[in-house]
Amino acid sequence: MTTNTSASAVAAAPEHLGLGLPDRVDYFARLLHDPSFSDVRNDGQAWLQRCYAQIVPLVLPAALNAVESGQPLPAECLRALRAVAAGSASDTDVQLSVILRGALPALRVFAAFMHETAPADPRQTVLAMARATRVAHELGSCWVEAWSDARAAKGHLVPGPAPAPPPAASVTGPPRTSVTALDGGSIELVAADPDLSDAEARMLTLAAYGHSNDHIARATSYSRQAVGWHLSRIMRAWKTPNRTALVALAFVKGVLVARSAPRAPRVLPASDQAGTRKSLSQPTSS
Fold this sequence. Notes:
By secondary structure, the chain is mostly helical. The protein contains 12 helices and 3 strands; from the N terminus they run H-H-H-H-H-H-H-E-E-H-H-H-H-E-H. It folds into 2 domains: 14-164; 166-262, Winged helix-like DNA-binding domain superfamily/Winged helix DNA-binding domain (Arc Repressor Mutant, subunit A). It has helices spanning 2-11, 25-33, 45-69, 75-87, 96-100, 104-117, 122-154, 198-208, 213-220, 224-238, 243-252, 270-281, and strands at 176-180, 186-191, 256-260. The longest helix has 33 residues, at 122-154. One of its GO terms (molecular function) is DNA binding.
């Protein structure tokens, strides 16, 4: 039993992306020293830049390793982040709207890296952006929770959270599909955005898997020219130069959400099923 359990755990271990992210700490540190903060309001950019100067050296190595390996962030990284957040409890410059968008500059930097790297296997882009988004969410949530708790302990008022958008899966008719992940599992994308039609959301999902316009046209019953027009419209609206950048930005914006698709139950061969039924029908000896 122990041997089988151990073997299953090894088989289910997340696959390394092979991007060499842990070796690029200095590279990303330079980019994150002064990234574009255009995603946040002007009066919050200076504060967020100070936060990046504190936080990036603490979490960057662990974050890159988590994206590369698919492993969780280590507890010591999260403890260090909570300590920094608690130290900001009395900071009057903190704005909740800035905090909630604080990870976007870092995600844009990573999206630009994925665009420049342009992996030959489109699954790498999907998995890398999905993992980066998950890590950014975990770091952001950890910071907000520690900051909120520290403010409450000091008697400061904590602003209420902004209304949460509906989860992507609850949007009517979200297009879904799946692709074999690098670890042998299945990755499912859910796309939803109020500014995209259902057809455009499905086209974007299929483009994320690296499908050609011809394939997308067959899957959506549109002409190849219509598919090209719709994808080009999204690229113009989002100011992205190509599909790789489009897919990366879709993850940054939360339009594309990746998750592990449920595995189908394993069907036993008929001989095994008969043996299982026989063993279950026999009384156990005490």
